[in-house]
């Protein structure tokens, strides 16, 4: 339950802050913007990354990277299977 306090109403966060100050010596609550950004990054990293890539890289660049990743994966798997067969 304590790990969820950062996502609760301010009155619960204030109680948690008092607890942290007494038991852990932490006197300042982490900025709400940092807490929210950390939550989004921890729980939606792939979705946020996809939006960033879609907005900042053209389709041709995305396709080139995707093709290269697929080729590298195929080569790696092919090498692995060849190695296994040789044993």
Number of E-state strands: 0
What is the number of helices? Answer: 3
Distance between the termini: 52 Å
Tell me the fraction of residues in β-strands, as a range: under 5%
**Tally of discrete structural domains:** 2
Poorly predicted residue ranges: none
Q: How would you characterize this protein structure?
A:
This protein is 78% helix and 0% strand. The protein is an all-alpha fold. The chain has 2 domains: 1-48, no CATH class; 57-87.
Task: Characterize this entry briefly.
With 87 residues, this protein is mainly α.
Keywords:
78% helix, mainly alpha, 3 helices, 87 residues
Draw up the topology in text.
Blueprint: H1 10-24, H2 32-56, H3 59-86
């Amino acid at each position: 339950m304590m790990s969820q306090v950062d996502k609760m109403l301010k009155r619960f966060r204030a109680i948690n802050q008092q607890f942290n100050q007494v038991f852990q010596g932490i006197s300042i609550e982490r900025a709400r913007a940092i807490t929210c950004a950390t939550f989004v990054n921890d729980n939606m990293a792939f979705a946020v990354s996809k939006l960033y890539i879609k907005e900042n890289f053209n389709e041709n660049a995305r396709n080139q990277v995707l093709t290269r990743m697929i080729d590298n994966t195929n080569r790696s798997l092919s090498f692995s299977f060849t190695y296994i067969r040789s044993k």
